[in-house]
Each structure stands twice: as structure tokens, then as C-alpha cells.
Amino acid sequence: MINLADLQGNILRGYTKKPHVRYLILEVAEPGAARRWLADSVSGRNGVPQITSGDWGKNKPDTCFNIGLTYEGLRALGTPSASLKMFPNEFVEGMTARAVKLGDVGRSAPEKWPAPFNEPKRIHLIATIYAEKVEQLDVDQERALTDVKAFKLLDTREGYNFPGDFVHFGYRDNITQPRFEGVPDSQRYPDRQPKAPLGTVLLGHPTNLEGLMWRVPEPAELGHNGTFNAFRVLKQDVAGFERYLDHAAFYLFVHPKGGELLPHGDEEKIGKGPSRHTALREIVAANLCGRWRDGTPLALSADAPDPNENLTNFDYVGVGDARCPHGAHIRRCNPRGGQIVQRIANNSRRLVRRGVPYGPPYDPANPYDPAKPYDGDEPERGLLGNFIGASLGAQFEAMSCDWLNLGLQDPRITGSNDPISGTNDPGTSWFDLPLKSGGTIRLPGFPEFVSTRGGAYMFLPSLAAIQYLADLR
Amino acid sequence: MANDESWLDRFVNKLHKKPKPWFKYFGAYILVPIWARLTPVKRLPGGARPAIQPGDNVQSMMNLIMPLKRENRSPIGRAKAALAIAENRDQIFAGLDNVGTVHFARFVIVNDNICMFSFYDGDFTNYIRDFIATIGGAFNDVVKLVEGGDALIPCEENVEAFIQWIHEHDLYQVPDTPTDFLRDQEDLNGDKAVSPVNDDLTLLPRKLVLQLRANANVSLGSGYRAYPGFSVAQVRKKLELGW
């Protein structure tokens, strides 16, 4: 059984009762002071917020506090070069160097990222505060930044989990995470996916690929039980997404095979009233995601959302081609046990996802920024995403470049990108809606609904590793 | 910009425009070494560069050149390399099938190098990682015969180092267009904004000469196809071979 007290709490816990999240993006000011700060963050002395571990004991913390370090941050803290050399290439190079692989091109290109992400080498440590109330975030931020010699605050990012776990595009999120072998299953929800080996999320443990081990940076107290996080600031074009659903619904309304998707008279089953147009919008939205907006998986309920259906206990094995599109977002990111081209890769690219929306919720009655009503601009909104796994290359990047974009896992979608978060160009993008008769209706013209506005590859050290870094001289 | 040129730049440009018969000897044995010393050029990394349009990332090419260890640079050593492939024939076929993204792979011995040439779909590191996971043992048998290979065995436990090693031994693919070649060079040097004077496209051959001095074996272009790119699974599905 894993010692949860040695892990940072945000790896295996979702902090679901703490909806307010603030990221402090920090640069090491003076290495000695920064190392003292790290020591204080482990012990909770001298006012610095204490790192929240995975073991809360009997006392739940009022706020949670966790850190991640970039490669530049490890260097700035004085990590020995022999240890630095043992970190994987993708982490050493950093997220901006991997832009093409991740689809960060065009308006998502790192050259267009705003401060502080326009100077990635200055980003050394990102501290995250989770709290029930905004005031608590302010208090912990002040405590974290009391010693000005330790870190310089470059900027902050802040998000808030909407009630009901809905996100900007209107889908319910935070439904499921991988369950791990050797970890008590606190959520105890049924899931047809096998438990993931601990090496999926922690360095130094067996991985899902039999016999393969990821390199653990030495000394052992530095690397063991650490993991990596792809932190992403993802801007979402919600008005554009809703406009696309409108266009697609009109297209299907007159399409000769549109009746196969929604037989006449079934409109109210979708749960949005008698309007055929509105029902078709929801069918498109559900197919793009692989879940209805209330979270019901299409693999379990393809015809209409069903509040009584289980949200997690499903697989794509034996699911006919008509139930859930092969190109749907959740199926692309995690094909579960379904047939894929890379036969050994089933369940090997799973990630722990910790996301929180930022920016104001979308209001269809007032879609544009009240500060600039005539510009036709939305206020910036999106997702502050954390994609956590023991290998950035084998999990986050592999999922992003071969599955999310390109669609290599299934010849029926190869050459297309994820309809919601892919690097899409309206001139070439497409998505196939499956029909019960066996055919498909191809939707063209997807713009890029999600664009990258910043990010960094982080190492999430264990508590022992933070103490090791604090003790460096 | 011309005013920023050194006397050597101007001299070379003049020769380049009106080549003299003795220039190739002068250039090869005197000028290029001096020039390389004055303008150090890093070796460009190997392998296919990911395409910005993700749909183009199929049928990419790997040209892996692995020099045999000194003690294997003999007919017996080369025979050992041939044997390592022959003995793992079944594993290699099984690996190709399970990895699912490899079109063709072939092994060739050229001048005390064992070479693996292949066409694959998607990301290079995923291809190699999946191969190690599937037939790591076969790779171990080959890698133990080549220079620098001992540190990578067993490759199943040195995945990151093994992928990096393969990447370093994969030939640089000289882009077909000069602008792409200059982009590669600038990326490597971390140059983004200011182009030095000799980045002028008309002087491109000079940069290429220096790169070919640092990197004697390269691939010219990224392969040429007689038809648009398809993935392995698309071909297999179309031919009803299962995928």
C-alpha cells in the first residue's frame, strides 16, 4: 500500500469541496531563501502554507496547498546536474519546445501566449491554493509570499468550479478519474475499466506497459513518488461552439438522413422541449463529446440523456458503431478497452485530470464582453487544466499528438482532429455522426473552439523530494 | 545587410558566383575547415519533423544508422548482426503487427553499420516506445552489438534513454525547401528574431555545406510518395485485412 503522506494531495484527490483555485506563478528570487521556503512548506512553519499531502488523517485542511516545479525551477534551486540529466527530455525541453506535437500552432503558438507564459524560462514554481472561499485564497497567497527574498510573483491565474460540475461548453465534468492499484478507492464508483497500475501516476512503480519502467531521477528521495503535470491554460470559444451547434442543427434539419438521428416525434425525449432544432443541437453536442451534456455516456444511452444511467460504468467493447462516434472527445482521449490500432496502448495513456473553469460563465443572452459590446468579443473564459501522469511523453503527449489530433487509433477517424479541443481548420476539419443504418453523416467546417493561452510542464515532487530540495546546499 | 559581411564572406560569395577550377580543392581542404571553426554549426537532430497539419503525420520515415562496435567491424561481426535479425524474425513480425503503425521495416548492413529503415505513422517516440514494449528483447540483441548500446540494455528499463539514442542515430532529414532548412538551424540555435547576415537564402549552400560537415550522413527530403499518405490501419481496412 502506498504511503499517501509522502504524496502531494492533488495527485490522487480532487479537492471537490474546495471550488476556488488560484495558481501563483513564481520565479526563484534567491535560491537559499527559496529552499528555506520549501522547508517551511513541508513543516508549515514560519507562516508558509503547509503542503497538503495525500493523507489528511482525521483533520480535513481548511485550504489545500500544492506545488509543481519546472526544469528551470529545479535548476534555480540548485539541483545537482547529475540528477537534472535524469529527467525526461520532454520535461527538460519544456512545453513550448513541444508546441507542434501538442497542436500549439497558429493562434495557440507559444509566441502568442501572454505574460508570464511568454517567458517560460522565468517560470520556476507554480503553487496552487484550493479553498471554499476567495478570501481564503487571499490569506494563503499573502502567507506564501511573505518572504520576498524567496520568490517573485510573476502572475496569477484563478478559477472556480461551477455548481453541478458543469464547464463552459455546458457539459458536466469531473465525473471520473482512474482508480489505482494499491490506493484506497475513496469514491467507490463502479467502473468497467481495470484499475491502473500505480506507475501510471507515480514514478518508481510498475507501469501499464508490461516490463517497462520510466526512469526515476536520483537520488531516490528526489524522484520516487513524484510525477509530472502538464498545466494548460485553455481558452474556450463558447459563443463559437454554440454557433456551430446551430449551423449543424440546420444542416441536419434538412439532411435526407437526419431523421435517422432523431425520428420525428422524438424531440421531447432529448429533454429540451418540442423544438426539433434544439433537440438536434443537443444530439450534435452529445456526439462531439461522447456524453450528453448531463454526463450520460452515449455508450450506455445513445438516443437520449438518461439521469438514471450510470456515468462511469461503461466500456466501448461490444458497443456498436452507431452508439458512440469513434471520434467523440472522450473516446479519443481514452478509448478504454475498445479496439484501437496500437493494440498494446489500451489503458496505457490514462491521465489524472484536474480542471477548473476560469472567466465568467457563458450567458447566451449576452454573449459578448460587456466592456466591449461592439467588438463581438467574448470575455476570455476557459479551463485551467492539469493533466497528471508519470510520463509526459508516453501519456499526455502520446494522447495529444496521435489520438486527440490525427486520430491514429482508428482508421475511420485518421486524418481528423478532436471536434471540441483539436487543432481544427474549418477548411479541412470533419466529424462523422454515426447512423443506426450503418452509414454516417459527415459534419464539416469545425473551427478551433479551444486555443492554448499558456502552460508549463511541471514536476510534482513527493514530500520527501521537497525536503531533499530544501536541504540542498 | 551587405555591409555587415566580413572579408571572408565577401570572398566566398565572389568565388561562389564565379567558381574557379581550383576552388573545390581550396574549399574542401582549407576554406571549409576555417569557416567551420569561425562559424560552428551544431548537428541537427534526426527524424521526421512533426507536421503542423496533424493529418500529414503518416508514413514518416526513420533512417537509423547504428555503427557496429569496433570488435564487430569484421565479417564475423557483421554476420552476428545478420544473425541477431534472423533469430528474431518472428518477434519482429509480431511486433509490427501489435504496434500497428509501421508500414515497412528493413534491416541493412552498410560499411560496418547496421541500419534500420522504416515507414511509420504518428509520433516517432510513440512508435519506438510501443516497439520496445512489444519486442524489447529483439532490440537488445541488436543494440548489444553496436557502439554505445551497452548502456541502453535492457531497453525496457531505459526507455527514455533508448528513444533519445535512436533519435540521435536517425538521419537528419534535410528539408526540400531552403526556408525549412533555415528554420531547423535557427530552432537549434535558439534564434528567433535576428537572422545573421549569412542566413540570406542566396547563400544557403554555405549553411548546408557546414551542416553536412557536422552531419556527414543525411536523408535528402522526408521521402517521396506516389500517392497521398494513408495510415497502416487505413490501408488494412480498405483491403479488408483487419486492423
Q: What value does the Rg of chain B take, in angstroms?
A: 21 Å
Class by helix and strand content of chain A?
alpha+beta
- Strand fraction of chain B equals 5-15%
In the predicted model, the low-confidence regions of chain B spanning at least 5 consecutive residues are 192-197
What is the level 1 CATH name of the largest domain in chain B? Alpha Beta
Specify the CATH architecture of the largest domain in chain B.
Answer: 2-Layer Sandwich
User: What is the distance, rounded to the nearest whole angstrom, between the alpha carbons of the first and last residues of chain A?
Assistant: 33 Å
Summarize the biggest pleated sheet of chain A.
4 strands, antiparallel
Report the total helices of chain A: 14
Reported by name, the CATH topology of the largest domain in chain B is Alpha-Beta Plaits
Give the quaternary arrangement of the chains.
Answer: heterodimer
Q: How many structural domains of chain B?
A: 2
Compact description:
Chain A has 473 residues and is of the alpha+beta class. Chain A has helices spanning 9-12, 31-43, 71-76, 81-84, 89-93, 99-102, 134-144, 220-223, 238-254, 258-261, 276-289, 329-333, 392-404, 463-470; strands at 20-28, 64-69, 125-131, 151-160, 227-236, 352-358, 382-389, 430-434, 440-444, 450-460. Chain A starts with 8 loop residues before the first helix and ends with a helix.
Explain the overall architecture.
The complex is a heterodimer of chains A (473) and B (243). Chain A is an alpha+beta fold. Chain A has helices at 9-12, 31-43, 71-76, 81-84, 89-93, 99-102, 134-144, 220-223, 238-254, 258-261, 276-289, 329-333, 392-404, 463-470; strands at 20-28, 64-69, 125-131, 151-160, 227-236, 352-358, 382-389, 430-434, 440-444, 450-460. In chain A, strands 2-3-1-4 form a four-stranded antiparallel beta sheet. The mean pLDDT of chain A is 94. By secondary structure, chain B is of the alpha+beta class. Chain B has two domains: 2-38 and 173-216, no CATH class; 54-171, 2-Layer Sandwich (Alpha-Beta Plaits), CATH 3.30.70. Chain B is 46% helix and 13% strand. The longest helix of chain B has 20 residues, at 124-143. Chain B starts with 6 loop residues before the first helix and ends in a 5-residue tail after the last helix. Chains A and B meet through helix 13 of A and helix 5, helix 6 and helix 9 of B.
